[in-house]
Write a structure and sequence with these properties.
The protein is α/β, with parallel strands linked by helices and 98 residues long. The protein is 45% helix and 12% strand.
Length: 98
């Protein structure tokens, strides 16, 4: 759990390797796009599933999230059972669960 993108990136850089990263786009200090880019490009972590969970519903934001390396994009408000299913699918694709 991290308060913002900068804290999340710092934790991952220190060796914490979560099975899945769920991030909002709108956060203080470092937004979700910067976080995804940092994980994928700066740190070179390609196998960790990243899901964006945000109230931002624009096509432009969704496109940018996928271009920076997000694996899924879920808009708020969301359906909880569907959200859990998408998390499970992301973990299965990444071979993080059986």
């Amino acid at each position: 759990l991290a308060a913002d993108g900068e804290e999340a990136l710092t934790a991952i850089a220190s060796g914490i390797q979560p099975d899945l990263l769920v991030s909002d786009l709108n956060m203080p200090r470092m937004n979700g796009f910067e976080l995804v880019k940092g994980v994928r490009e700066s740190m070179g972590i390609k196998e960790m599933p990243i899901i964006i969970l945000t109230a931002n519903t624009t096509n432009k934001s969704q496109e940018l999230a996928f271009r920076t390396g997000a694996d899924d994009y879920i808009c708020k408000p969301f359906n909880a059972p569907l959200f859990i299913s998408r998390i499970r699918a992301a973990l299965l694709r990444a071979d993080r669960i059986k």
